[in-house]
Amino acid sequence: xxxxxxxxxxxxxxxxxxxxxxxxxxxxxxxxxxxxxxxxxxxxxxxxxxxxxxxxxxxxxxxxxxxxxxxxxxxxxxxxxxxxxxxxxxxxxxxxxxxxxxxxxxxxxxxxxxxxxxxxxxxxxxxxxxxxxxxxxxxxxxxxxxxxxxxxxxxxxxxxxxxxxxxxxxxxxxxxxxxxxxxxxxxxxxxxxxxxxxxxxxxx
Length: 204
Ligand SMILES: [Zn+2]
Prior knowledge:
3 helices, binds zinc ion
C-alpha cells in the first residue's frame, strides 16, 4: 500500500527529493539514495549508470531494481546439469521498476544486462535527464529472480523437474539511460531498440 505521506526533502541532507507525483520511489541525487515510499524512511543505494552510446534523441533515465544474489540448481539428470553448468553465469539482475517494458521486452533485457555486467558502469555525474517514475515496488524480488533464472536455463534444456532457488543478497535502485527518437526507444547500455514501446512516453 502506498504511503500517503510524501516527503519533499531528503531526511539526511535536506535536498529536494526527485520523483513524479505517482512514483513509488523518490530519489536524493546528493546522497545517492532511493526512498521506497511504502517503506519510508528506509532506502536503497542509488546507482546512476553511464551511457555507452552517443545521445542522438531525447535522453531519459529508466528505473530498475538491481538485484545481486545467488542461485542454486538441483536435478538428478546429469546431462541437463552438465548443460546448465556450461552456461555463462549471470551478473546482477536488472528488473524494470516501470510498467511499460514489462511483458514487452523485459525478460530479454534483464538477461542481456546480466550477461554483460562489464558494460554497466556507474557514473559519478548525474545528467539532467528526464526521470521515468517507478510503479513497481520491490516486493517478491526473490521469486522474480528465480523466474528469471528458470527462463534462462529453459533456453538450453527443459527445466521440468529442475529445482532452482534464488537468494537476494543486496538490492540497489539503478537508473539506466535510454533515449527517445520519434517513435522508438533505445537503451544506451547495449544499444538495443525497443520496437514495441511506441506509446511509451518518459514522464514529464
Ligand atoms: Zn540526501
